[in-house]
Amino acid sequence: MSRLFGSVRSRATLGATLVVAVALVAAGAAVLLSLRANLTGEAGTRAERSAQAVASELAARTPLDKLSGLDAEDTPVQIVDDDGVLLAASEDLERISGTGTAEVTPAPARSGAGAGRDEDGDDDASDDDRDDDSLAPGEIAQGASYTNGTATVDGDTEDYRFAAVEVETPDRGRLTVHAGAPLAAEHSAVGTALTSMLIGFPLLLGVVAAVTWLVTGRALRPVEGIRREMAAITASEDLRRRVPEPATHDEIARLARTTNATLAALESSVERQRRFVADASHELRSPIASLRTQLEVAAAHPELLDLDGAVEDTVRLQNLAADLLLLARLDAGERPAGTRVDLAALAREEAAGRGSVTVDAEPVEVSGSRGQLGRVLANLLDNAQRHARERITVSVRREGDQAVVGVADDGEGVADADRERIFERFVRLDAARSRDDGGAGLGLAIARDVAARHGGTLTAGAAPAGGALFELRLPLAGADRGTPPA
Fold first, then answer.
1. Long-range interactions of 303-312: CB distance < 8 A, separation 24+
2. How close are the terminal C-alpha atoms of the chain, in Å?
3. Per-residue pLDDT for 217 more than 90?
4. For position 479, what pLDDT does the model report?
5. How many Cα atoms are found within 13 Å in the side-chain-facing hemisphere of 322?
6. How far lies 477's CA from each of 2, 339, 403, 484, in Å?
7. Residue 132 neighbours by CB distance under 10 Å
């Protein structure tokens, strides 16, 4: 059961069905109450009309045994005086309740009927003694009071809506006429509506549940396709595969596009790592093989040992291992230290001991790792020395909220098509390879990665003297460095 309702489809169907069920119950109750109130009001109106008709006859001095309203078959009528004594009732009335008196047999006529009236038929009491709610002789009270009850007429017992109307008769004083209208139509209509709801509501809920199940399943079908494809990618470890993208423009389509973008980035990262491992293995193989050969020759013929070559290969191997270790730390997301570094002093320090290097620098401070930034300048100077003819110029200046370090040489420069490619790992241009002194093509890649980790950029361009110009831009100390790119 928990697994069944653990899916989005099941929960959506259950939720929609419950909401519709609550709405239907509320609407059904409102309809039934409104229907019952309307039908009860109509019955009350019919009862009031019957009571008003009898009251009109009484006001016209019609004798009790001549009242036409007492002959109606479906309208039980009672006429009572101020003392609650039953004066007249409908024919065949056997039992009644809800009218204030349960009597169905009129009381015997009292002697001195009409007492309280003078010879002229007027009240003994003066007009000044009448209450505010008194009626003039022959006057019928406006409005009626209503009650619900039951009556048995000729053996049939039913529910009735009773209306009570007061009338001031000229000869009998204040009388109250109780007349009823059957509520059978109200009960029948309400019962029919309730039965229809009890039958129709479950059917409607079933239709809602089925439609919601189908619509939700259709809407979530692309999600299931994405899930299956991701499971297949995980099982096959083939990052070239992509999840299907629906032709819609909803959240699921955006999810599929984001998932494919993530897979593409992951594929690129894995491919980059694979190339990195392959290139590193290739680069490490050469100095290791050379060093092993020299050691094997030295072991067999000590007099042939090339000690300088062995030391050179060892240093080359050591430098390559240091570069690979630094790249690994950068790829792992190592954040630079937050110390203040004076780029002008750092540039002079790295340029010291290098011939034909001119430094033109103003004091500019940035925040970062002194060791890593020194490595950037060292790599740029090494690259410039391999390609410069006579002169290398290092400049440090401030531009707005950025520090700019430029390293220019007077060599052949870098072609426009290669100005981005030279920052890739293990890439060495043909022109550079002939003048290379043992580099593995990692210097510029390391320099750009360090610049990115410091919130800056490293670009290649043309120097005024015609050679290459590498510009390092870093935010000044205290400025917002932003989020380093991954």
1. 312/438
2. 45
3. no
4. 62
5. 10
6. 57, 9, 9, 16
7. 4
- 443 exposure class (CB count in 10 Å sphere: 0-12, 13-18, 19+): buried
Residue 136 to residues 78, 122, 140, Cα–Cα distance (Å): 22, 10, 8
Domains delineated in the chain? 1-238 (no CATH), 251-331 (1.10.287.130), 339-475 (3.30.565.10)
The three-state (H, E, C) secondary structure of the chain, written as one string: CCCHHHCHHHHHHHHHHHHHHHHHHHHHHHHHHHHHHHHHHHHHHHHHHHHHHHHHHHHCCCCHHHCHHHHCCCCCEEEEECCCCEEEECCCEEEEECCCCCCCCCCCCCCCCCCCECCCCCECCCHHHCCCCCCCCCEECCCCEEEEEEEEECCEEEEEEEEEEEEEECCCEEEEEEEEEECHHHHHHHHHHHHHHHHHHHHHHHHHHHHHHHHHHHHHHHHHHHHHHHHHHHHHCCCCCCCCCCCCCCHHHHHHHHHHHHHHHHHHHHHHHHHHHHHHHHHHHHHHHHHHHHHHHHHHCHHHCCHHHHHHHHHHHHHHHHHHHHHHHHHCCCCCCCEEEEHHHHHHHHHCCCCCEEEEECCCEEEECHHHHHHHHHHHHHHHHHHCCCCEEEEEEEECCEEEEEEEECCCCCCHHHCCHHHCCCCCCHHHHCCCCCCCCCHHHHHHHHHHHCCCEEEEEECCCCCEEEEEEEEECCCCCCCCCC
Mean pLDDT of 126-133: 45
Q: Can you give the length of the chain in residues?
A: 486
Using alpha carbons only, what angle is made at residue 65 by residues 62 and 71, rounded to the nearest 5 degrees?
100
Average pLDDT of the segment spanning 110-120: 43
Kindly state the average pLDDT of the residues 250-262: 89
Whether residue 225 has pLDDT greater than 50 = yes
Give dist(CA 6, CA 13) in Å, integer: 12
Question: What's this model's pTM, rounded to 2 decimal places?
Answer: 0.52
Predicted confidence at residue 485, as pLDDT, reads 42
Beta bridge partners of 184: none
Roughly what angle, to the nearest 10 degrees, separates helices 370-387 and 443-453?
Answer: 150
